[in-house]
Structures are given as structure tokens and as C-alpha cells.
Design goal:
Elements: E1 6-10, H1 14-31, E2 38-42, H2 46-49, H3 55-58, H4 66-73, E3 79-83, E4 95-100, E5 108-112, E6 126-128, H5 132-141, E7 146-148, H6 154-162, E8 168-172, H7 173-178, E9 187-189, E10 203-208, H8 212-218, H9 224-240, E11 248-255, E12 258-266, E13 273-281, H10 285-300, H11 302-311
Parallel strand pairs: 1-2, 1-3, 6-7, 6-8
Antiparallel strand pairs: 3-10, 4-10, 5-8, 5-9, 11-12, 12-13
Helix pairs in contact: 9-10
């Protein structure tokens, strides 16, 4: 029956489609389903249409989710597949991030036709990125470099490198691995040098709260460690600033029953920053993130966050 078709909502980029198809494959394998049991529904979001300015100026993370969430709420789709780092910390009433796939490589990828690493770039060289976090982190480690606004899909960004718009750019390793384009990575930047975005490398699946049929299917492909790590990271982000206007990085790691978290907040120009480390058990993942945020807020002080706010307007 057509009504039993599982409709997966996604953005239309190559990466978004790769993530939707990965979700479909995992569900097929887990339940012995066929291609005919699924429909991939491509939804164009406001964020996809804005290419001329940073998303932080246009309204932040929700720009990549609004239309997809509307389709979820009105029943046009059964589940939505997202890059977790694109997800706002507050979701619409009736929706939840119920499922996470096993997390991929969390690192940022350095990509250049001229240089092997960020450290190797000469003074005044240009890095292209649309991410406030990456911009601030580049300026933190290399204040002598120039950073320019740089949006578009992977191919567009590579073409800009070829045209000399920038000498290097930064992308998520996870996305390139999922696209089968790992060879594009000039070098991966270790997290000790470059803390990733909250949720980086994790595919999150959004569903209607209480949708027993879909939740029952998704339970078989859910990764609990990723869920716990993301609960910690998203609590940290939400307590500090869930928008795109503050450069924030955070990474939770799980080893057995132990959880360790590192967080960082920066001024957009990288000239001032504060970091924090917090440990706890996996059962208190969210509490660890909240504690880290509280300590970091006290450490940085009110004046720092006022300066961040002023810089973002």
C-alpha cells in the first residue's frame, strides 16, 4: 500500500542526499525492506536559497530546517535527515531528534591547492569560509591570515580555489567521507588544534514525538553513544547561545561509562577566547554540558559575551 511508504525528508545537496540514502540503506538492512518501501522527498530550504551572505546575518541555523520541519509536522514526510551541526537547539513543538547514526570523523579538513597545512600558509594568505567558528579559530591560531566569506557546495568551493578567490578552505571531514571524496582533503586538522562544531560528523534524524511506527523502525539503527555525546554538546550550545551568532566549538568523547567534554567560545576575530573541560558519566551527559557552559560563562564574564553580541551586529 502506498500509505505505508516511508517518506524521508532531506535538503537537496549532494551531501544531504548521501545522508538520506545512508539512512535508507541502514533501515533496509535492519528490517529486510526494499527500495520500493521508501521515498526520498527533497525539500528546498531558505538556507539553500541564501548564497550572498553568512547565515548568521540571515537568521541562523533554523534556515536549513524550517521547511523540512513544516513537512514533518503536516505529515508530508515521516522522518527528516539532518547534519546535526545544522540543528537549532530548540525544536518546534511536537518534534524531536530521536535517532542518531554512528558518528563519523569529527575533524575539520584543510583543503588547498598550494599548501599542506594551515601552519604552512604564508602571512596574508586567504582562507575562505562561511562558518563563524572556523573564521574565529583560523584567526585564533593564525591572526596574520585573511578570512573571506565563502559559501556554496563542495564543487563550488573547489572551483573558487582554482580561480584564486582563496588559497585554502575548510570543510568537515565527515561530509567528504560520506560523499566518497576523501581524496579532496589536503590534511585533517586534529581536534587539539581545531575543536569542531557541536554535532559535527553526526547525522541526526528528526521525527514526530510519539510516532510509534517510525520510532520502532528507527530504534534498530540508533547509536546510543552518539546520542549521549550530542546530548552533552547540544546542552552546552543551548546554554551559551543556540544561534549562529557566537563562535562556539564543543566535543564530547565517550569511553565506556565515562564522558569527557571540551568546549570553546571565541570572539569572531579570534582575539579573545575561553575554553573549558568537564568530565562525568554517560548517564549525566546533558548535565556535563550544562556545567561546562555555566563554568565557561563565569570564566569569560559578561563583558566578553556583550562583545560577541556587538561584533555580530
Amino acid at each position: 500500500m502506498a500509505s505505508s511508504t516511508i517518506k524521508i525528508g532531506t535538503r537537496g545537496s549532494l551531501l544531504a542526499l548521501a545522508q538520506a540514502h545512508e539512512t535508507k540503506r541502514r533501515l533496509m538492512d535492519a528490517h529486510g525492506l526494499s527500495e520500493e518501501d521508501f521515498e526520498i522527498v527533497v525539500i528546498k530550504t531558505t538556507g539553500d536559497m541564501i548564497q550572498d551572505r553568512p547565515l548568521s546575518e540571515a537568521g541562523g541555523k533554523g534556515l536549513f530546517t524550517k521547511e523540512i520541519e513544516e513537512a514533518l509536522l503536516d505529515g508530508s514526510i515521516d522522518l527528516a535527515v539532518h547534519s546535526s551541526k545544522d540543528m537549532p537547539t530548540v525544536l518546534p513543538d511536537g518534534l524531536e531528534l530521536s535517532t542518531y547514526l554512528p558518528r563519523e570523523d569529527v575533524r575539520d579538513a584543510f583543503i588547498s591547492r598550494k599548501y599542506q597545512t594551515l601552519a604552512e600558509m604564508p602571512e596574508g594568505a586567504v582562507v575562505g569560509t562561511s562558518s563563524l567558528r572556523r573564521q574565529a579559530m583560523v584567526k585564533k591560531v593564525r591572526p596574520d591570515l585573511q578570512v573571506v566569506m565563502y559559501r556554496g557546495n563542495v564543487q563550488t568551493r573547489l572551483e573558487k580555489l582554482d580561480r584564486g578567490v582563496a588559497d585554502a578552505t575548510l570543510l568537515a571531514c565527515a561530509g567528504l567521507h560520506r560523499l566518497g571524496q576523501s581524496e579532496i582533503i589536503t590534511s585533517a586538522i586534529e581536534t587539539d588544534d581545531f575543536l569542531p562544531a557541536v554535532g559535527q560528523g553526526a547525522i541526526g534524524i528528526e521525527t514526530r514525538i510519539g510516532d510509534a511506527r517510525i520510532l520502532g523502525l528507527l530504534a534498530a539503527i540508533h547509536d546510543v553513544d552518539t546520542e549521549r555525546a550530542l546530548a552533552c554538546e547540544r546542552a552546552f550550545l543551548g546554554a551559551l547561545d543556540g544561534s549562529c551568532r557566537t563562535p562556539i566549538a564543543g566535543l564530547a568523547r565517550i569511553s565506556g561509562d565515562a564522558l569527557s567534554f571540551e568546549g570553546l567560545v571565541l570572539l569572531p576575530d579570534g582575539s579573545e577566547y575561553y575554553d573549558i573541560a568537564e568530565d562525568g558519566s554517560v548517564d549525566e551527559a546533558e548535565a556535563v554540558g550544562l556545567r561546562a557552559a555555566e563554568k565557561l560563562r563565569a570564566l569569560a564574564g559578561t563583558a566578553f559575551f556583550e562583545a560577541v553580541l556587538a561584533a555580530s551586529h
